[in-house]
């Protein structure tokens, strides 16, 4: 089924844009003759009867990016509002994953599993002496290194 579309990939659609009416029919008859006899207005009318837009009009920016930016701004504002409400509702809330107990348990788990033995936490642990290598102090603060015990001390 032929259909009309304005596109760079199909610059000449299979059908014309407008249906032929009485006035356009007269122009179509004049079109078959000498084009020098047609006025500029007649040529424009014939063009617009065949095509909805010029290729420059098709290429022109649509302005859809403004709507996308606006939608994203509204979404971010709503998310910020939601996080703020949650923060004001329980200001003392602290996730359990940031407590010292959790960090110690996670560290112990990673060492026992020998996770990332090349450049991760397992590479910083001396499994023969059951303690962290001296390079571990480079990556930790004083408080963290005090809270981390060796595996032999925990057993």
From TrEMBL:
GO terms for biological process: mitochondrial electron transport, cytochrome c to oxygen. GO terms for cellular component: mitochondrial inner membrane; respiratory chain complex IV. One of its GO terms (molecular function) is oxidoreductase activity. The keyword 4Fe-4S does not apply. It is found in: Mitochondrion inner membrane. Pfam families: COX4. Keywords: Membrane, Mitochondrion, Mitochondrion inner membrane, Oxidoreductase, Transit peptide, Transmembrane, Transmembrane helix. InterPro entries: Cyt_c_oxidase_su4, Cyt_c_oxidase_su4_fam, Cyt_c_oxidase_su4_sf. It comes from the Eukaryota. It is a single-pass membrane protein. Pathway: Energy metabolism; oxidative phosphorylation. The keyword Mitochondrion applies. Its main location: mitochondrion. PANTHER family: CYTOCHROME C OXIDASE SUBUNIT 4, CYTOCHROME C OXIDASE SUBUNIT IV. Component of the cytochrome c oxidase (complex IV, CIV), a multisubunit enzyme composed of 14 subunits. Component of the cytochrome c oxidase, the last enzyme in the mitochondrial electron transport chain which drives oxidative phosphorylation. Belongs to the cytochrome c oxidase IV family. This is Cytochrome c oxidase subunit 4. It comes from Magallana gigas. The lineage of its organism: Eukaryota, Metazoa, Spiralia, Lophotrochozoa, Mollusca.
């Amino acid at each position: 089924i032929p259909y009309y579309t304005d596109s760079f990939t199909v610059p000449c659609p299979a059908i014309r844009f407008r249906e032929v009416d009485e006035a356009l029919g007269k122009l179509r008859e004049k079109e078959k003759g000498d084009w020098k006899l047609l006025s500029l207005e007649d040529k424009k009318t014939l063009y617009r009867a065949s095509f909805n837009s010029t290729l420059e009009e098709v290429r022109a920016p649509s302005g859809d990016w403004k709507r996308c930016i606006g939608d994203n701004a509204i979404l971010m504002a709503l998310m910020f509002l939601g996080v703020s409400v949650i923060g004001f509702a329980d200001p003392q809330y602290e996730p359990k994953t940031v407590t010292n107990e959790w960090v110690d348990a996670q560290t112990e788990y990673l060492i026992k599993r020998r996770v990332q033995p090349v450049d991760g936490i397992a590479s910083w642990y001396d499994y023969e002496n059951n303690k962290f290598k001296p390079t571990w102090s480079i990556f930790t603060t004083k408080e963290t290194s005090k809270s981390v015990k060796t595996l032999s001390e925990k057993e």
